[in-house]
Design goal:
This protein has helices spanning 5-16, 22-29, 33-45, 78-90, 115-127; strands at 65-73, 94-99, 106-112, 133-140. It is α+β, with helices and mostly antiparallel strands. It has 2 domains: 5-54, Arc Repressor Mutant, subunit A (Orthogonal Bundle); 65-140, Lrp/AsnC effector binding domain/regulation of amino acid metabolism (RAM) domain (Alpha-Beta Plaits, 2-Layer Sandwich), CATH 3.30.70. The two termini are 14 Å apart.
């Protein structure tokens, strides 16, 4: 699916503000509202836009401690990875999970109310033989310097 400059501009604008009105978008991409709406719907149908969400103020929703867990599995076969990934998907405290190359198999970002909750969670993972975790190395997030705000699209043009 080939994207032109207008498609890329729409994607960039929607990454920044998913609630932007069609009228506001159309003014920024210099198309009619109808043409803009058609393009956005096309991008949604093609799977380039997979959803819209609200970004919450972490301080306003209550204290949370965020941890990064580098996790090595005992077994790197596909079935073991699928079991681990399913557990990460089903765990609400896991806010992001990435399969990596290198010393560890996964980098997992975990948000908990406190250290005790994190310890209970990871101890449960380690005790679950089906997950097959060999090792967890934890770092505590001290400050978020830059949060994910969308993918860079300028290099696509």
């Amino acid at each position: 699916m080939a994207l032109d400059r207008t498609d890329l501009r729409l994607l960039a604008l929607l990454q920044r503000d998913g609630r932007a009105s069609v009228q506001a978008l159309s003014e920024q991409v210099h198309l009619s509202a109808r043409a803009t709406l058609n393009r956005v719907r096309k991008l949604e149908r093609q799977g380039l836009i997979t959803g819209y969400r609200a970004v919450l103020d972490r301080a306003a929703i209550g204290p949370a401690v965020v941890f990064f867990a580098e996790i090595a599995l005992k077994d790197q076969r596909q079935a073991a990875s699928r079991r681990f990934e399913a557990r990460m998907q089903a765990t609400p405290e896991v806010v992001a999970c990435y399969l990596l190359s290198g010393r560890y198999d996964y980098l997992v970002r975990v948000a908990c109310a406190d250290l005790a909750q994190y310890q209970r969670l990871t101890n449960g993972w380690l005790e679950d033989a089906e997950l097959g975790i060999e090792k967890i190395v934890t770092s505590t997030e001290l400050q978020t310097v830059k949060e994910f705000g969308g993918f860079p699209l300028a290099w696509k043009v």
